[in-house]
Amino acid sequence: MLIEFKLPDVGEGLHQATIHEWHVNINDYITAEDNIVSIETAKSLIDIPAPFEGIIKKIFHAVGSTIGVGCTLVEIESKQPTNTIAGKMPSKEISLEPLHHISALPSAKRAAKSSNISLESIAKWRPNKTITPKDIQEFLALKNTNLTPDSFVELLSKSWKQNVHTNIFEDLYLDPDTKDINAHLLYACGKALNDHTDLNIYWNMDKKEKVQLDEIELGMAIDTEVGTRIPSFTWDNQQTLHSLREHINTLKIKAHENSLTKFKPYSCVITNIGHIAGKYATPILPPGCSFILAIGKSRIPPGCSLKLLPMTLTFNHLAMTGAQAAYFLKSIIQYMPGEIG
């Protein structure tokens, strides 16, 4: 006989729950008290046991589905004398107390604990929302690429100690009507790296060796309310200023929404300090990065009809010679709409 086994009243004053994990598959043989499924409420994770033995013939809901009390969980082939059974509440429940003011699902708290990361770090990275297991996974992915606030600061310090930061300064004179400097810079850097493929490298700080990158990944520093983000995108020679502007707009929106998902090792990062203040800079290379091109606040000098754009190329002298870096900067300038002073 086929019997429908339904979600019981979870007894917390709540009338729905989310499927967290299935412990059975179709055609599995189960005995009474075997755990069938773990459900998640706003307060706890609960294992739902089988009320009798039988064979699982159908599973009605996917992981992540939210269902109400009384909804059918599974269909079981059994010798029970009835064709519908409401599940009974198990006596064992996993209780997860809330952590101060941070809102997180119980499964997220378990995932954070098992991954040895603090919910406070995740709340700083993704504020004003209930933390989910997906947030934990994305935070770990960011941590592995050194881009969470805590790990990024820690690894910048490591980069400063282990790399040989060297700077080249230059002035570029542009037509005063030149628009969208950031798109021009990304275009010039992509073209320059395409010309100097030997410099499209990622520096392994631990092994102190160069890693040649198959694709050109350009990073862009974006200032947000929870710190600097450096997302990247893959360059190809079909890029135009218009398509680059669309990339920049998308990256900015995702950075401010903390919804960036693509992070790859990049060889070059663009940072526009001039939109705030300052002419030249001595930035610290993000871990593994070979170059940072920083541009300062542009201005028209007295007695000059052109706009001056201050530029600083910071490079890792362990990864290349000064001549290689200078040729790279020269190539960038050749693709910019201006001339050096």
Overview of this protein structure:
With 341 residues, this protein is an alpha+beta fold. The chain has three domains: 2-94, RNA polymerase II/Efflux pump adaptor protein, barrel-sandwich hybrid domain (OB fold (Dihydrolipoamide Acetyltransferase, E2P)); 97-144, no CATH class; 155-340, Chloramphenicol Acetyltransferase (2-Layer Sandwich), CATH 3.30.559.10. It is 25% helix and 29% strand. The chain has seven helices and 21 strands. The strands form five sheets. A seven-stranded mixed beta sheet has the order 17-14-18-19-20-11-21, with helices on one face. Strands 3-6-8-1-9 form a five-stranded mixed beta sheet, with no helix packed on it. The protein has a five-stranded antiparallel beta sheet with strand order 7-2-4-5-10, with no helix packed on it. β12 and β13 form a beta hairpin. The longest helix has 16 residues, at 241-256. The chain is elongated. Mean pLDDT is 81; it is low at 83-100.
Give the topology, please:
Elements: E1 2-6, E2 16-22, E3 29-30, E4 35-40, E5 44-49, E6 54-59, E7 66-68, E8 72-77, E9 84-86, E10 94-95, H1 106-114, H2 119-125, H3 133-144, H4 149-162, E11 165-174, H5 181-195, E12 201-204, E13 209-212, E14 217-220, E15 222-224, E16 227-229, E17 232-234, H6 241-256, E18 268-272, E19 291-295, E20 307-316, H7 322-334, E21 338-340
Parallel strand pairs: 1-9, 14-18, 18-19
Antiparallel strand pairs: 1-8, 2-4, 2-7, 3-6, 4-5, 5-10, 6-8, 11-20, 11-21, 12-13, 14-17, 15-16, 19-20
Helix pairs in contact: 1-3, 5-6, 5-7
